Amino acid sequence: MRSIDYQRLFHLFPDSLLLLLPDGTVADNSDAHVKVSLLPRAQAVERDIFVAYPSAPESQRELLGSLEHVRQHLEPHTMSLLRYDLERPAELGGGTEERYWQVTHYPLFDEQGQLEYILQRPQDVTAQTLAARQAEAATQALADVQERSRFILESLPVMVWTNTPEGQPDYFNPRWVQFTGQRLEDLTADLTDLTDVVDAGADTAGDVAGGVWTKLTHPDDRAGLAAAWEEALSTGQPFQYEYRLRRHDGEYRWVLTQAAPRRAADGRLSMWVGSARAIHAQRQLVAELSQVNEQQAALAEQAYQTYQRAESQRRTYDQLFQEVPALISILRGPEYRYDFVNPASQGMFPHRQLLGRTVAEAVPEVVQQGMVALLDQVYTTGESFHEPALRIDIERSAGEPPQEAYFDLLIQPFKEQNQPAGVLVFAVEVTPLVRAQAELAALRARGTGGPGAPGEY
Fold first, then answer.
1. Fold for the domain defined by 137-312
2. Distance (Å, rounded) from C-alpha 181 to C-alpha 184?
């Protein structure tokens, strides 16, 4: 019978195997182990395992514990996940490879049942470990994005909503609930066709959402709103309409509502994204300007058209919050570094980059105007700041002197892990409105001898 060279067979075994004496001396290893360990067999055999394969102290302690377990209990023992980086020989290019291992020790006995060897089987699980780490990082990144999106949508002083492709409302941010005084479940209840609601008339029982939306819309505006919305649904084109919406105190207030269709990669309509902003003060201003005298009608039209142009520039939606028609930015940390800038904010400064820079670096002209001090106040006190017509002189084009501008400005702090993390800045430029109000006041002063008062926002 042909004899078998068991040592050669051990060397050829496809697994990575290391044979140890009970005291931890290397007795032999497989060719696969030699290849993985990057150490020639002659430099490992008859040497202590920690001399042949040096490792960090914490790894040595765990390995010693595993070997001691086998010696005491004479049973296999699997270590917890072990990181053991390999030093590549100079002939292989040098350097260190980050590697992770699942190591199991098996007792091998002689004929008398005494422990003769300990077989170590290290399994390279580097790929699985790194993949799991990447998956965990991706999951955390997704959670961070979702949390930031939720925070922005919950904090925006604008009524934001979404609809299904068929026009069914499925989300309203808290501003809708605060403005209307209605329950969220009533606002999102089934409403398949607004025209059916209009045909049924106000106060119709039956469809809950139909009743809610019929009562919330001014009777004179229901038919026009329904027709405009039905046209948008049928054509898939952006929607815009001005109508009177009933506030929680029973008063009807003018709002500008806009919605844009969002499409999937294949062009199919996936959702509608919309917002509504109060324009009651602007509508009142137009009415008051028209009443001063006939000669001022052109001024009123110019003021209102200016407002409409400003609104139309912010009415395109690509995502839930990035395309809200206002200047939105997140300033992170006490140095107020731009962490998020929506297209409208960047568009205000086409000649400079905002994202990744501090306010002082990106918009230096506002520092002397007290803007950083105002951000400090909000950041340190944790109290929001709101000013409906704050003057800020800004450099709109490179090399030009700062121009006078007015903004409806909200600065709101936010925390992470219960610690101040930065501020959310929401602003709408109201320069045309402020100038029109000043002109109206001047006209009134000349006509009646007294100043005029701007309309309520």
1. Beta-Lactamase (3.30.450)
2. 9
| Paired tokens of 82 | 């072990």
Domain with CATH 3.30.450.20 in the chain: 6-124, 137-312, 327-448
Q: What is the mean pLDDT of each run of 10 residues along the chain (457 residues)?
A: 83 92 94 88 93 82 92 93 71 71 92 94 86 82 74 74 86 87 79 43 36 82 91 92 92 91 90 87 72 55 61 47 77 95 88 94 93 95 94 90 93 92 93 90 76 46
Cβ-proximal residues to 279 (8 Å cutoff; 6+ apart), any chain: 242, 254, 255, 256, 307, 311
> For 396, phi and psi rounded to 5 degrees?
-80, -25
Helix (H) or strand (E) holding 160, with range, is: strand 159-163
Instruction: List, as one string, the DSSP characters of 289-320.
Output: HHHH-GGGHHHHHHHHHHHHHHHHTT---SST
Q: Which fold has domain 6-124?
A: Beta-Lactamase (3.30.450)
The pLDDT value given to residue 135:
81
Helix intervals (H) in 119-269: 126-155, 174-180, 184-187, 194-200, 208-216, 222-235
Structure tokens at 167: 């026009």
Would you state the structure tokens that stand for residue 21, as one six-digit string? 């004496």
* Contact criterion met (CB below 8 Å) for 352 and 362: yes
* Domain 327-448 sits in CATH 3.40.50.620: no
Give tens-digit pLDDT for 314-345. 344 345 556 667 899 999 999 999 999 988 88
- pLDDT attached to residue 453: 47
Q: How far, in Å, are 145, 147, 444 from residue 165 at the CA level?
A: 24, 25, 49
The structure's pTM equals 0.40
| Nearest partner of 416 among 148, 153, 215, judged by Cα | 148
> Rounded distance, CA 175 to CA 160, Å?
8
pLDDT digits (tens, 9 = 90+) for 284-298: 776 676 665 555 555
